[in-house]
């Protein structure tokens, strides 16, 4: 048996004091939904929040009820900004920043060969997006205060998300000293700081996502990156006790003839789902470094502002 995860667990994980929040997890588990809900919650508490997506076929705008989001930061509500970072334009902005001149960047990089070369450097596209999201944490207002209190990154799903998070460390290890390495060092230091950065793992109360989440949490802790919060999405309110679940699941197969049969059939299904959910929540609580928080399954379209506000309250 593997050793148990760390025992010193914060009772409540808060994102309110973080500068950078990275939301990841298996595809389709509700990462963008959680980003939207956290962004709504934090901005309502007066935090200036930027949500950054990575080259996404973005659905965040539908969730927030705002016009489609592009590669330019747009204010979408009070205290709330959003951007869909595209690797090409991020690379261009970053290049211009590093070279202190967009014109110089254009002479150097508006060249198919150079562009193809950059595209081929492993991790360069990932760093362009992650680095740009990080760079937004360094932006300041004229009075010197941070432009955003927190940047929430809607990161790619598990494997790609991990690959993306590995890039700054690789740059720190292998890049020659210079601006690229200096920025990667600053970003990597921020990502590793549990007071300033939180990685949020989103999962479902099901077997495969649970296993993947536990593995992801291990991989992140091996990289020295802080898992600040685990959100179990799509949680069903339990209708049955453990004994009732067992009794329902033990029912022999039967044909459905009457409404009573149908109700019993549905109950047996529900009992099985509740058992899997209970097992998954147990495993997550046992194996993860932070106590999970939950958001309920809504039996309706959740990609709209009203639903997101309700989910935000539950977080
Ligand atoms: N708690 C929930 N209840 C009902 N539907 C949800 C819930 N969370 C997410 N969804 C829906 O599931 C789909 C996937 O969610 P999304 O946040 O886009 O996942 P991801 O970003 O991980 O791919 C979306 O249609 C979303 O509206
Ligand atoms: Mg998404």
- Rg on CA atoms, Å: 22 Å
Helix-strand string: EHEHEEHHHHEHHEHEHHEH
Mean of pLDDT: 90
**What coarse outline follows from CA principal-axis ratios?**
elongated
Spatial gap, N to C terminus:
33 Å
Largest sheet descriptor: 8 strands, mixed
* Spatial strand arrangement across the major sheet: 3-4-2-5-1-6-7-8
User: What structural class do helix, strand and pairing data support?
Assistant: alpha/beta
- Total beta-strand segments: 8
Helix content: 40-55%
> Which ligands accompany this protein?
adenosine-5'-diphosphate, magnesium ion
**Multimeric state:** single chain
**Uncertain stretches:** 1-7
- The share of residues in extended strands comes to 5-15%
The helix count comes to 12
3D architecture notes:
The chain is an alpha/beta fold and 315 residues long. Helix content is 50%, strand content 15%. The chain contains 12 helices and 8 strands. The protein has an 8-stranded mixed sheet with strand order 3-4-2-5-1-6-7-8, with helices on both faces. Strand 6, helix 9 and strand 7 form a beta-alpha-beta unit. The longest helix has 29 residues. The radius of gyration is 22 Å and the shape is elongated. The N terminus is likely disordered. Magnesium ion (MG) binds next to helix 1.
